[in-house]
Fold this sequence. Notes:
Shape: rod-shaped
Strand order of the largest sheet: 1-2-5
Order of helices and strands: EEEEEH
Structural class: mainly beta
Distance between the termini: 81 Å
Radius of gyration: 26 Å
Bound molecules: zinc ion
Amino acid sequence: MIITDVTCECGASYRCAESHTLSGTAGEFVCVCCGELLESWTEPRERAYRLVTSTERLYAHPKVPPSPLHASPPVAAEAPVAG
Length: 83
Ligand SMILES: [Zn+2]
């Protein structure tokens, strides 16, 4: 049995188990979150997919503020004046 991970463009991820001992049928797998065709196969193989992460469970990407290092020009260090 071969275990592979499949990720859809919508962010949903699946784990696929493909058996080499059981005979199955040709087929295709469609993402249950967005409906996009993820995989299709013509060999008579038995495949099973399990949804690992749905789009509803994904973490929201936080907005990253701009780096303060590049926002302002570098300040030149003043040399101490000998008096
Ligand atoms: Zn999808």
